[in-house]
Design brief:
This protein is an alpha/beta fold. 49% of the residues lie in helices and 15% in strands.
């Protein structure tokens, strides 16, 4: 029986790769709905190709996504929407009792307790799609969380891994968008360069797998072949290894809890070349340390981290601030009190708005200098 797949963020990297899987495996998957931010022409073409309904957020608003979710009768929804705007669609998916294949980090970073309770209440599942969390998800399912003492998340290190602190002062937007391993959207690519992305993933891992921040480690692995590891209580490490192709974790989420054959190229250990590992340069890339601090404090600190980083990255892309000022804006934003507990969606958005306002004010003061 075909699984009905709803694709949110269908014109982005995750959405396109989800549709590629559905095209190549029509016997297994049926696309029952697509949504994009603003590309009406692309949505119209996809609706025609897959004979499904679609919506464009800039035209139809959140009501369009809500109606699409209800009409789709989906078995699973893939949320590949970038940024905080992906949170409300995640909530709507879970409210309708649909399994959520989640690539939107902000859903967990901003509102984990809200979405976790929704999934439990409506008897549906949240299956992570990030390659790192997909790896941890599968390893914990096989080994058992109770047998694991530590999670190790791998990071490519981004395009600036080898640059000196002096060289980092001069990097451009164009430099930051040249990721050495992955082909992703601009926001996540810049977050990878600054290690903010890895910081968000640490927060995600703490929440998704219920581990304390000191039990979640990061190691730089430039080849991006090992996607994450877990250490069992006897000290042994277990790794998940595959080619750096996001279709692997997407497919894994679509067929979960089963493991099925796929058209994707299997990883060949004999021809992969070397695998190297390094500790992250925390002093040169402070956003990772700031994320750990927010994971420990929790409450609205994780929301403030994400919001300030979004504001700073948008400013960097617009060439209003330097690469190193991204971390400065986030750090100064976090100096405020973010101890409010965001136990409702309204409080989540309240903290998000406040953090964005603070970050904008800090940005303005930096521009004025």
């Amino acid at each position: 029986m075909k699984k009905r797949v709803l694709v949110l963020g269908c014109t982005g990297s995750i959405g396109k790769q989800t549709l590629d899987i559905c095209r190549n495996m029509p016997e297994a998957f049926e696309v029952c709905g697509v949504a994009a931010g603003k590309n009406e022409e692309a949505v119209a073409e996809l609706c025609k190709e897959f004979n499904c309904e679609g919506t464009v957020f800039s035209r139809d608003g959140i009501k369009g996504i809500e109606d699409l979710i209800k009409k789709s009768k989906a078995d699973i929804a893939v949320n590949g929407i970038a940024g905080a705007s992906g949170l409300e669609p995640s909530v709507l998916v879970l409210k309708n009792g649909i399994d959520l294949a989640l690539a939107n980090k902000e859903t967990v970073v901003m509102a984990w307790h809200v979405v976790k309770d929704l999934a439990s209440k409506n008897k549906c599942h949240i299956v992570p799609v990030d390659s790192e969390h997909s790896a941890i998800f599968n390893l914990t399912q096989k080994i058992g969380t109770e047998n694991i003492s530590e999670i190790v998340i791998t990071a490519s290190g981004g395009p600036f891994r080898k640059l000196s602190d002096e060289e980092l002062k001069k990097v451009t937007v164009e430099d930051a968008l040249k990721h050495p391993t992955w082909n992703m959207g601009p926001k996540i690519t810049i977050d990878s360069a600054s290690l903010a992305n890895k910081g968000l993933e640490v927060i995600e891992a703490v929440r998704l797998f219920d581990f304390s921040p000191d039990k979640v480690k990061v190691v730089v692995h430039p080849q991006s072949l090992i996607h994450s590891l877990v250490r069992t209580k006897d000290g042994v490490l277990y790794a998940q290894i595959s080619n750096p192709d996001m279709r692997h974790p997407i497919y894994g989420a679509l067929v979960w809890p089963e493991y099925r054959e796929t058209y994707l190229e299997p990883f060949d250990l004999a021809t992969c070349g070397e695998m190297t590992f390094f500790p992250p340069r925390l002093d040169s890339f402070p956003l990772l340390s700031l994320a750990y601090e927010c994971a420990r404090k929790s409450n609205s600190y994780t929301i403030a981290f994400n919001a300030a980083n979004e504001i700073a990255v948008a400013a960097f892309i617009a060439k209003k601030c330097s690469f190193l000022q991204i971390a400065e804006i986030v750090s100064k934003t976090l100096e405020k009190d973010w101890s409010m507990i965001p136990d409702t969606l309204e409080k989540v958005y309240e903290s998000d708005r406040a953090a964005r306002k603070t970050a904008e004010e800090i940005l303005s003061s930096l521009i004025a200098l």
